[in-house]
Predict the structure.
Amino acid sequence: MSGAVAKARPRRTEPREKRRAQLIQATIRSIAGQGLSDTTIATVAAEAGLSQGIINLHFNSKERLLLETLAYVVDEYKSRWERALDRAGPSSAERLAALVEVDFHPSVCDRNKLAVWFAFWGESKSRPTYRRLCADRDRGYDRQLRQLCGDLIAEGDYPGIKPESVARGMAAMSEGLWLDMLVSPRHMTRRQALGIAMDHLAHTFPDHFGDPAQERART
Amino acid sequence: MSGAVAKARPRRTEPREKRRAQLIQATIRSIAGQGLSDTTIATVAAEAGLSQGIINLHFNSKERLLLETLAYVVDEYKSRWERALDRAGPSSAERLAALVEVDFHPSVCDRNKLAVWFAFWGESKSRPTYRRLCADRDRGYDRQLRQLCGDLIAEGDYPGIKPESVARGMAAMSEGLWLDMLVSPRHMTRRQALGIAMDHLAHTFPDHFGDPAQERART
Amino acid sequence: MSGAVAKARPRRTEPREKRRAQLIQATIRSIAGQGLSDTTIATVAAEAGLSQGIINLHFNSKERLLLETLAYVVDEYKSRWERALDRAGPSSAERLAALVEVDFHPSVCDRNKLAVWFAFWGESKSRPTYRRLCADRDRGYDRQLRQLCGDLIAEGDYPGIKPESVARGMAAMSEGLWLDMLVSPRHMTRRQALGIAMDHLAHTFPDHFGDPAQERART
Amino acid sequence: MSGAVAKARPRRTEPREKRRAQLIQATIRSIAGQGLSDTTIATVAAEAGLSQGIINLHFNSKERLLLETLAYVVDEYKSRWERALDRAGPSSAERLAALVEVDFHPSVCDRNKLAVWFAFWGESKSRPTYRRLCADRDRGYDRQLRQLCGDLIAEGDYPGIKPESVARGMAAMSEGLWLDMLVSPRHMTRRQALGIAMDHLAHTFPDHFGDPAQERART
DNA sequence: AATGAATGAGGGTTCATTCAT
DNA sequence: CATGAATGAACCCTCATTCAT
């Protein structure tokens, strides 16, 4: 008898990182489903199908769980646009388009994740920690965006346009469109939002993105 | 006789509406200062310098206080842009500029109020009531914006521009700039935000807002 | 001018005793309607159609109001059976019957008042004050009952019956029937209760109350 | 090895049912000691020597705790008289005597439990839930009592006696004697109450319970 | 005499955290 | 590693009482 121990049923004890990831996912679902202020250790544990004690076991406190959840969303976003840049064509225009498009990728625009972003932004004024985490998010992204806009302006015929203003305006528009998708999913779908952002891009840099209006006007 | 009797201590009993307004202001400050999820009856009462019981006396529940606070901010915003439209010049361009400018009026961009907006947006996914209140906000504003953009497009030489896309893009950019002012007040001041929004406006409708770039290009 | 002051509308200020009586009636209704533990100054004031402050104005505290309400019910009961005795015929049998009947007089069995009795009895173990008030109630009543039972026993052919035992048993039965009327009004009407009590009386003192069974047996 | 390990402190975690029973006992003591309306979660927890949180942990609400406490007392009473019937001799007279005696068994007449009965009866008018629980109590008991009285009447020479009237009268007397024991423990001891009830029984069914008076009269 | 706005202690309940198992 | 019983601080809310009007 004995010999090989059956591994049939799911192991009760999972590797540490796997459990943490599982709990972070449960936290995201809970924030989206109940709201941040109604997200409790109990709702997260229930969402994960585990016992209450497990959160303090793996994260020591609820506060830490929330911070790591925010960090996870921030990091995931960052790695996603970095990957998008890597995969994009070599031209600045292609890279800029890729950067805009990634903001409307299904996995980024997932309403659960949007809820998490805005939940933390909603508390950010009174929580320097949140603010710092979110500010970090923007740092690299902003630099890239400004750089690319600068490149295009240098390449094309865009007199009088300030790279910082355009870049920040574009980023702001994306954020605003996220909000619309969160608050009014009926009136603002992902595709519509992407369309609006791309229209704006085309209009801002008609030389690069073949704005039909300008093209027609030119001829 | 006796002339004016000095009222040393503040009167204990205030007219109903005055107290309610006072408590709503205290709620705004508390949400901004502590965050929505750390805003308690106690923090609001302390902010107002009154006792805890007074909130249930005037609002029956914390939930109602929060809803009325949100409604107050929503209403105030609405009446502000309506007044701005009333006072604006007759041309559509003037009216559109007024509509954009009002989003960056000091009283609208007040960081306390921004915190309230985003606090409720952050919970909106799980609270249909919040979502509905906020959706109402947009309804009239959107219509106006779309109308004015349509007018300008009809007047000017803007082939291929869709009013809905432009209008929603502009509104989204304002929201995104609000977020920046909330999260990174150092990097995004009210003046900068206004500049970015006006740049975008000028760029979108160069015929109306004398985009220097286009003007130069034209000559 | 002025002359006679119009007395048309109900005077806002009532004589002291009238107000107190009015508030005691409201308290009885409130205890019956909401239960003693859900009877608040607010429910009593609402029941009386007056403002909250009036109770402390007339009774100084809720506790006092409750005590006076209990005392009122106790006194009213006492004066009622005293009057019944006064009006009863001269014979002990008539007087005893009158004493039993008064327990089932509509005004005594009023479910609101029963609710008050049992509300206070329910708290009596932990409230010596209530217990004392209720004990006072019994004192005189018991003496009368015992006396009358003793008289009948002396008059009739009731060997081996102890007056105290019979008297207390009869009183207990009345109380138990009150409880039935309170808890199960459907199953125990006032008339039924009276019937049971009178049956018991007739059975206990067949010589005086013409118990049909015994009468038949005698012939 | 090591033999029995001494468990110095009481185990912190008890089986679920044991804790619930413990808390119900504490509730009974609290109602008896402070009265129902002064029984708070805090008094019950203190009586049990546990923390406040434990009540909601095991009963979800105070209301539920009170209901289960009432249900416990009701059930205990029921099982007690059922057991008494099982153990009683086969004759209807013996069974009836057993039924009456159980009402004055020390464990039933325990003043703490009496306080609970009357506390809930005192609120019963305004709480249909209480009333229903108490009505259930009576259902089976009444049926048995009526049945047994009917049997005795059929067996003996008791012309003109109605089983329902006698049965309900006896039950009412027991309730009234409970009240006396609760309100005036000095003047009504358990033994006295039992004596009164048995006197009544003997008097009502002299053929079965050898009423000395009647017996003497017969000779 | 009467009102009702205001207070604040104390109620029931929630929930992050601890800890014996 | 994982559980869930237990804790107790802090929450929202109620309500007896006070007091300016």
About this structure: The radius of gyration of chain B is 21 Å. Chains B and C do not touch (no CB pair under 8 Å).
